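User: ok so my PI wants both of these folded by tonight, can you help

Assistant: No problem, let's get them done. Here's the first:
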Amino acid sequence: MIELSASDPFAGLHLPLVHGAARLDSVPPVRITAIAPLPGQTEALASALGGFPAPGEVLDTTLRLVWVGRGQAFAFGEGLPEGLERHAALSDQSDGWAGAQLEGADAQAVLARLVAMDLRALAVPSSVRTLLGHLPLLLVKQSETAFDLWTYRSMAGSLSHELDRAMRMVAARRALA
């Protein structure tokens, strides 16, 4: 029988990358469960989880719950409460997503080149679904200088490439100033 093992979606992409005051590294693989409340079960689900995120919200209960779309959240980590399937549709998304963390004093300047929104306006922590260039993106603002960036696993190389390029441009601009 063939034994499969988890692999890093960024394997071979030479992470971490550091250019100027920005650092990009992969987020270690973690269990990701998509959660969507069944009709009429939102309150029961929130009670079982210790909350359910509103649009843009990130909740840290026994799990990290991140809003990902209308009536949907991702739970990052192990330990979903028993019987949760009575209140919500659950789907393991762990193998389908690739996470990277961009941090440093220039992180917002790097993302400003690629994401069509004012990241300064987002609360800490918060989440937003957007595009990074042409890539679908779940952006989680951890702090003013740290962002978790999630895209489909098949797009990990493109995410790394786009961020590397923007990091180099911001670093070069700072060096000339």
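One down. Here's the second:
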Amino acid sequence: MQLEGSCHCGSVRFSVDAYAPYPYLRCYCGICRKTAGSGGFAVNLGAHAASLRVTGRRHLRAYQARLDDGSISPARRHFCGRCGSALWVDDPRWPELVHPHAGAIDTALPAPPAHVHMMLASKPGWVAAEGAPDDERCAAYPAQSLADWHRAHGLGEG
């Protein structure tokens, strides 16, 4: 699915071909929550890095988080340097992938048939992991990747 996205001020615009466009995975980890979260979680999609097209690149900035062990994450969280909007995450360990933040997408996204709540061990007390009673809830990472979840639900190429 072709997705169009932008930052709040319009300085950065992008398009990308998403293999996993359903915004089902809610991440409550401290990094996602603090850099892109609203409601205490962030939602990332899965897309093909080779398809990423960007205008306004001069306004892009990237952040690499410090992990609990003191090391720097290789994952790069891209955002607009003018308005601060979180746009996408990429990681050189998986150069074929890019993960746009659902909140930066302007294209209408399909409604997921279910939600998965991950990294709940990192969730602060003020945040409720809302959703359906049968939503999958994981203290850390779920067993299925973005692609596997899409395939298991019969949702596109996954």
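The first helix runs from residue 30 to 36. Residues 114 and 132 are 8 Å apart (CA to CA). Good luck tonight!
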